[in-house]
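Record 1 of the preview.
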Amino acid sequence: MTDLVTFGETMLRLSPPQQERLETADQYDVHIAGAESNVAVAAQRLGLDTAWLSKLPNSPVGRRVTGELRRHGVTVEVSWDDSDDGRQGTYYLEQGDVPRGNDVIYDRAGASITTLATGEVPEGLVEDADALHTSGITPALSDRVETTTADLLERANDAGTTTCFDLNYRSKLWSHAEARSVVTELFPDIDVLVVAQRDAEQVLGRTGDALDVAASLTADHGFDVTVVTRGADGVVAATADDEYVQGSFEASDAHPVGSGDSFVGGFLSQYLTTGSVPEGLEWGAATAALKRSVPGDIAVVSPSEVRELIEGETAAISR
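->
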């Protein structure tokens, strides 16, 4: 039985080396990049048996994605697009120190994932898994994938599979109002909600202290756990009975892309294994910190590295 199935798009990321500008670069570093596949890799490397579900063009660039995920031990459950219109989504990341900062340009419109229908998902894949994870990026990709996302969460919920959803708002995909309308319709089938504090405010209209936000979302929607991330200020969580606070670990700013997904993968690696929210938060925070030292979008980390980092830090505080 698979411990965790993740569902979503994975792109190719093209980045000029040495913080060079996109308009002058004559070569690019290539990485695979997708919120849900990032979660799958982190969780797999930290002890879970994971699978990634998506749709890709049956082409060398599509196989570039699956080859990288298999390299990290993730099982690939892909519907292959054999059409002449099959596309692999890409994005360009230009990295720069202050005052420039980073710049992202997406080229993902019409990617094969946008045509994935529920009927293309293998029967029993999510029903037989212990958990299903996806994010708010996925239903924003197309109307069809919005429907597929809702169907899979419902199927998982009906089967008793734990469902995890990271709101993961992307302004280049939809507006706050559009996101709110869609994701709140998914809430009845979600057990674990992860949301950045800024997204809780801007998308869900929840203001105030992060712990109050987490507690109110749990109470209002019946989530088993609501996790609210706060960047450098750490993360908080609330169940129906308890509240938890976890600080952040000291980390580099060298490679921040993918650190949020790494948090989710680290959190799920322990929460799904032990049921412990504080252990999940601790592992999530440590995994995210380690990721920031690793190029690309994927957390190439080991359980021993996470444990070593945690041993020198203060554990989550329950109150």
